[in-house]
Amino acid sequence: MITEMNEATPRTTMIAVLCDGRASELVGVRLLLASLRRNSPNTAVRAYLAPALIEQHRAELARLHPRVELVGYTCPESWACKPFVLLDALSRAEGDTRILWLDTDILVLKPLDELRARAPATMLVAEETNPTLNLQVQDAQRMLGLEVGPPRATTISSAVVGVTRQHAAVLERWREGVTSEPFHKQQ
Description:
Blueprint: E1 14-20, H1 26-39, E2 44-49, H2 51-64, E3 68-72, H3 82-92, E4 98-102, H4 113-116, E5 124-128, H5 131-143, E6 155-163, H6 168-178, H7 181-186
Parallel strand pairs: 1-2, 1-4, 2-3
Antiparallel strand pairs: 4-6, 5-6
Helix pairs in contact: 3-6
């Protein structure tokens, strides 16, 4: 259910975050920033990038999105950086700001106001609809020592994750998980 916005409903601030340390993936960063500027221009962006990429492309990235803040990337490579970036972004945010992680292979095709309007207690995630990946979830749960749930038609994808301070404990647990020995063995 989507919360209707009216004059009595406070507007939650939202900051889109992305992270990449690879020069080979800069095209995705460019396209994501351009799509945000075109389709959700009021959304601020915090881009966690390798310091060398920031030095080389600062002016270009600022032209692609006027509300982009560039942050030196110092967390783990790959998608394991997500809980680190989300927690850092939350630590820099004020109040009930929603932090919205977007993978750098995503294009924003419409305004993000519908996501901004969700209640701060609501954690936003994408669905993974690849049945092969869905079947692998139980093996990963076992490997990580987690409770194994029944198979689902869809599972959670971390391609899009929206959080507020209310989700800090979940993010801290996620960070612990990606730094654990069982996780590294499973990878």
